[in-house]
Amino acid sequence: MSVAARETALVTARRTNRYRAQRWAADGLTYLGLAAALVFFLGPFFWIVTTSLKGNEDYFSFPPAWIPSSPSLAHYGRLFTRSSGLRYFGNSLLVSTLSMLAALVVSLPTAYSIARWRFGGGLLSTVLLVLRMLPAIALIIPVYLMYKTLGLTNSYLGLIIIYTVVYIPFAVWLLVGFLRDFPVEIEEAALIDGCSRLGALLRVVVPIIAPGLAVVALFAFIATWNEFLFAVVLTGIETKTMMVLVTSFTSGGTDMFYGEASASVVLGVLPAFLVAFLLQRYLVKGLALGGTKG
Amino acid sequence: MKALAVAALAVIGVIVVIEVGPGDRALGAARPYEGTTVRAVVNAEYVKYSLSLIENDLYDKLGIKLETEVIPLDAFVAKTLLEFNGGRSPWDLIMFGGTFMPDYGRHFEPLENWVGKLKLDFYLDDIPDVYKKLFLKYNGKLVGMPYDGDVHMMFWNKVAFERPDNRKRFKAKYGYELAPPRTFRQWDDQAEFFHGWGWDGSDNKLFGAGASYKGNLYSYYWWRQRLFAYGGQYFDADMKPLINSPAAVRALEEMVRTMPYYPPGVLLFESEEPKTMLVKGEVPMLYSWTSTGKRVGNPAESVIATKAGFGVVPGAEIDGKLVQRPALTPGRGMAVSAYSQKKEATMKVLEFISNPDQSLKIVMDPKTIMDPWRLSHFRSEKFRKAFPGADEYLDAIEKTFLHVVPDPILPGANEYMRKLSFELTEALAKRKSPKEALDTAAVEWDKITDRRGRDKQKALWGEKMGEMKQLGIEYRPDWAAKAK
């Protein structure tokens, strides 16, 4: 090998090594950044989870007890028995699931008619979006008075109706995007093969835009689960939701109920977290699906 | 055969009488309201817990079961008034803040109507005057009972004040003896002195004092003890806000100036954070609600359980006389809903939960933040031995009740206080000057007054001013300059 060739090889090897080192450094920094972000965002949740399992003696120990010395589910037990946690957890599950289903059932045909036939001109979709922008606080008094007259306060039906109504505009807006992305030719082929409009929608369109529907369902479920204002004003002792319970522990001081307060927070976020985790595959696909057209 | 059947029936009869007869009848007599459920509404889970402490006794004595709804504190006033203003209420027993009596009072059932009829005894002689005069009456009629004696008092860590080295250094710097502060000038000096070093003998960097300055009412509670000590008042007789008077500005300027001596994050602190810092030995002194004492005295949590001092919140020296004006905050009271279908049973519940023995059980429990409010609570031998220093603690509370100043007890009190607190925190965060913040708050107060009806507010304020004057609280414009 000539001297020039050897030098070239050396230079190449040096460059490769430098490149590798730079890449490792960059990867290292990226992972370090990610780890820091993870600690920053999940640290408080970790602390809440461990506090919910700690005994009273561990709350204020120094150095801090990161892992409880004798973990126990006693706070969860007390939350369920003394604070009606089981009832409120069940209420949240029921109201969130039914509102989510109702929002889907109403939004899908609405979005379909807007996407295919520009139902309501351009106006309807704009009005729906504007409705979404209306803050809940502006609606709460009239809604309360209307509900009081209709006898809908402190009822599951009342909560489900309001959540469905509030969530429909966003669901329609999202679904219109998915449906416009959907190739109309596939639908037309189904019609030529003898499918009715409804049949084509249910048998052809829905299975293909399922990830989009999952996104809508997920957002509807989480939004309902986390909603507080309507839940606190329109409910009574029988129909309160988990978020109201969480807030009744955490607003105005927790005093010595750190364990129960933490347990209520864990139970308050867990279902939404689980649903998001289970549907994350569809979430990414669905967001990409609706992202190409507005 | 017939005789046998009769004998068998007789035996069965005897058994039935033994099993369910006299015992249950006797119990039935002892539980006159058996089968009744009274619905209560409160504003936090720990208040619900406090009611659970007496539930069994209540059932054993009266046969009444309590079903308690919790509406979170921040939504409580709005939600309950929304229900009441609709002329109905799903609740029989209502928790309320005494400050908000003008908003709530018309929805409460006067107690006098029932006292004779049911032979109720609310032990009114056992309640501090300030409650009876300011918090429990509506249109001159008694409509509620206290549940939580919500006043501020001072706590300190004796180590900080008794270490010889600290005393020597303090005297050398400030020219007077180090002792628990009696005036805000001393408080500020001591906060400056203690801040940033190990006043407990450790190498830790500790803080000068504790406080809660969050703008959702806390900064207002902490500020107004200075305001009144310097002769301030909320309004004059014409409903002109006095919250930007020289006394008010001075109080806020002092707080802004001493901000560096408080823990970082004090602008976001609500009640629990500084209490925790006190019991962990990180701040040498704090004034806060009296329930803090139960945490201070709990050795499982507190490193100062045997080293804590208790006293009245500092004030100011005016013409050689000490003026202390600790805050009497909304607190919690209980009343019977005027719309209840079970008024008689609910009156019995109210009498039961506020009687000296049952209420003592509630205020003594270390897990509740319900504060003592009966004179017999302060003097209870059991309570005075509950933790080290409990006797000093209870004496300090009793003394505090002689000096307390209430909130502006007017319709819309919550609005007035929240607007003011927001502006105070703006100044503490140095986003506005103290004068600018207080001027803005005064403009906001005028708007609230106009919206609520100036004449109506003025008439009510006139009454409240009269009641406050009876307690020795009036506007003294000359004090702002002379207060030491």
Characterization of the model:
The complex is a heterodimer of chains A (294) and B (484). Chain A is mainly alpha-helical and 294 residues long. Chain A folds into 2 domains: 3-59; 74-290, MetI-like fold (Orthogonal Bundle), CATH 1.10.3720. Helices cover 80% and strands 0% of the residues of chain A. Chain B is 49% helix and 11% strand. In chain B, the strands form 4 sheets. A 5-stranded mixed beta sheet of chain B has the order 2-1-3-12-6, with helices on one face. In chain B, strands 8-7-9 form a 3-stranded antiparallel beta sheet. Chain B has a two-stranded antiparallel ribbon with strand order 4-5. The longest helix of chain B has 19 residues, at 2-20. Chain B is globular and about 70 Å long. The relative contact order of chain B is 0.16. Chain A binds chain B through residues 56-57, 59-60, 62, 82-83, 141, 144-145, 148, 154, 232-233, 236-237, 240, 244-245, 247-249, 251-257, 260-261, and chain B through 39, 43-46, 48-49, 52, 67, 69-75, 78-79, 82, 86, 90, 270-272, 276, 279-280, 291, 295, 300-301, 366-369.
- Please list the strands of the largest sheet of chain B in the order they lie side by side: 2-1-3-12-6
Strand content of chain A: under 5%
CATH architecture group name of the largest domain in chain A: Orthogonal Bundle
Number of strands of chain B: 12
Number of strands of chain A: 0
Quaternary assembly: heterodimer
Chain-averaged pLDDT of chain A: 84
Percent helix among the residues of chain A?
over 70%
Number of helical regions of chain B: 23
Structural domains of chain B: how many: 2
Largest sheet of chain B: 5 strands, mixed
CATH topology of the largest domain in chain A: MetI-like fold
User: End-to-end distance of chain B, in Å?
Assistant: 102 Å
**Order of secondary-structure elements of chain A:** HHHHHHHHHHHHH
Radius of gyration of chain A: 26 Å
Strand-pairing-aware structural class of chain B: alpha+beta
